[in-house]
Amino acid sequence: MIRNVKALTQRELVATFYSPVAYIVAAVFLVASGYLFMDKTLVVGSEASIRGMLHSMAWVLVFAVPLLTMRALADEYASGTIESLMTAPVSDVEVVLGKFFGVLVFYAALLATTLMHVVVLFRYGEGDPAVVAFGYVGMLLLGALYVAVGLFASALTRYQLVAAMIGAGLLSVFTIIVDSLAIWQGGVWRTVLGYINILYQFEDFAKGIFDTKGLVFFVSGTLFFLFLTVKVVESRRWR
Amino acid sequence: MIKVQNLTKVFGSRRAIDGISFSIEEGEIVGFLGPNGAGKSTTIRILTCYMPATEGVASVGGHDVFNDSMAVRRIIGYLPENTPLDMYVRVREYLHFRGKLRGLDRLAREAAIKRVADLCWLGDFIDRPIHQLSKGMRQRVGLADALLHDPKVLILDEPTIGLDPTQIRETRNLIHELAKRHTVFLSSHILPEVEATCQRTIIIAEGKIVASGSPGELKDRIRGGSRLIVEIAGPDSQIEKSLSSMNGVDKVNATSDNGWQRLTIETRRGEDLREEVFKLVKEKGWSLRELRLEVGSLEEFFIQITAQQLQSRQQSALREGR
To answer: Looking at the domain assignment, is residue B311 inside a domain?
Structure first.
């Protein structure tokens, strides 16, 4: 199990590094994080934290992560390599997990580049290490959920562009749209919409609070979408 | 080694394969022949655990393809149609990845890669990226991948499609070589291909098995069997009559050509009556200028089947049109 997932993760990572899309996403990510750090933190009178940057990055990632995940399964279907993969002694779960970790490692590497902002922060200000640490924990959890949603979208189609649009669409629902809807609703609906709002759940992590509710939300959401992905991959063989 | 019983696969309203049964013994090399769209790839995909069957059972090496899928996958080496490969990596890296999935450790992988590289002549391009390789080279990489874990059963879907004549001959030789160690099941829509490589052929059309046997056995089953072509000069009415009354003769067709009679004699069981015909001619004192046995070819048989298939398809299209 672990050996197969490891082999598949490596392959996915290699494939990501060979794809030009990954470099474009990386460039956009670096520019965005740099700009946001300057705009939110490197301003006279602002607080010495990366909260503003992380919070805005969560928005950027709604569109960036689906571009990283769109290739994962859609391209297997388009090129036919799914056939040699699924006739080797590996299970559907292992294939999906391998892809998940492959993209997640790439995402983590991108995230690690923002650590230079943290260095600047501590050099010129008095940042709170706990706030920064939990901010990154939150970003990893958020990234895992985004990657799982993106993979699910990629399993649905053989066209990468369609996969990216479905992924970004789904993530928009759980961030932007849910947020707008909540304003118009009251009572129970407001609570429900608030609970499935990814950005709302991320809020506490960005503030530096370790939030069990948020942890449960991200982990269960990630597992739920990975489960859906496995089911879609399974069901595609029946057709 | 491979057992298939009453296997059916339905896509929507179309029956891609319809209740087929066959079995393949260990060490056999069997060809799966049929026109495009006959259901060859569907059958193979069920055997290799890529898709489940709608009805029926199939097993490889005693393991059920549905219930014991991982055991089946471990003993099968499979070359899918059109050889899908990871385009961005080098051949060696690809084989390493595939070896890992097969559970081989580093040393075992290196040994296995060396073995298949020799077997499939990968030496020249083993360190080149796969997207740079030609179709023939990719085919060899796919075959090397299928052989990596020294599988008991080798399943090849159209292994020579898209290759040039030299490569086809090389691949055929390789398959012959492999048949000594593995049970081989290969599909093709080209008849000489199967005739040249396989001990036994299973012919499929419209999702049903229409014939099965060694090339020799299949030839016997060809409708009309073999024919004698004879040209005789003599009294016209007598020739046809005496030939028709010969033992074993089914039908005689005669045409005249400048005083010569050209006769096509169809025999009942494909018997060779050349000697008897010659004796008759000698006895009657006629002249003889041609005496030839025309053996029906597998090719004809195959074309017959394909034509039948086309006809039934056109008929059903007409029916639907109404």
So the answer is: no
Question: Is the pLDDT at B148 greater than 90, yes or no?
Answer: yes
Nearest of B120, B122, B188, B203 to residue B156 by alpha carbon: B188
Domain range list for chain A: 2-236
Band the pLDDT of A31: cuts 50, 70, 90: very high
Q: How many CB atoms lie within 10 A of CB A27?
A: 10
Instruction: Note whether B81 and B155 are same-domain residues.
Output: yes
What is the pLDDT, as a whole number, of residue B269? 67
Q: Is the pLDDT of residue B60 over 90?
A: yes
State whether B80 and A90 contact (CB < 8 Å): no
In this structure, the answer to whether residues B252 and B235 fall within a common structural domain is: yes
In a domain, B304, yes or no: no
- The domain spanning residue B212 has which CATH number? 3.40.50.300
The size of the A-B interface in CB pairs under 8 A is 66
What's the Cα-to-Cα distance from B78 to each of A209, B142, B149, B294, B300, rounded to whole Å?
53, 8, 11, 40, 31
The helix-helix angle for A92-113 and A115-124 (nearest 10°) equals: 30
Residues of B with CB below 8 A from A4's CB? Answer: 100-101
Token pair of B117, please? 């590289």
Shared domain check, B140 and B21: yes
What is the rounded CA–CA span in Å between residue A16 and residue A19?
5
Q: Do B11 and B149 share a domain, yes or no? A: yes
Tell me what percent of chain B is helix, strand and coil, each rounded to the nearest 5. Answer: 40, 30, 30
CA gap A20, A24 in Å, rounded: 7
Which candidate from A15, A18, A88 shows the least CB-CB separation from B98? A88
pLDDT of B219 > 60? The answer is: yes
| Residue B116 belongs to domain spanning | 2-221
Listed residues B165, B188, B221: the one ending a domain: B221
Res. B215: pLDDT tops 80? no
B322, pLDDT greater than 60: no
Residue B59 and residue B62: Cα distance in Å, rounded? 6
Q: Residues B23, B163: one domain? A: yes
Residues B256 and B154 in one domain: no
**Residues with Cβ within 8 Å of residue B221, at least 6 apart in sequence:** B211, B213, B301
What is the CATH number for B266?
3.30.70.1340
Convert the pLDDT of each residue in B259-309 to its tens digit: 888 888 887 766 778 888 888 888 888 889 898 887 666 666 777 777 776
Residue B179 confidence (pLDDT): 85
Q: Are residues B147 and B264 in the same domain?
A: no
Q: Do B166 and B134 form a contact (C-beta atoms < 8 A)?
A: no
Average pLDDT over residues A135-163: 95
**B314 assigned to some structural domain:** no
Which chain B residue shows the shortest CA-CA distance from A15?
Answer: B88
A38, A128 Cβ separation under 8 angstroms: no
From chain B, the residues in CB contact with A18 under 8 A are 88-89
Among B64, B54, B51, B16, CA closest to B208? B16
Q: How many domains does chain B have?
A: 2
Q: Are residues B172 and B248 in the same domain?
A: no
Does B68 map to a domain?
Answer: yes
> Which residues of B are less than 8 Å from A91 in CB distance?
70
pTM for the whole structure = 0.83
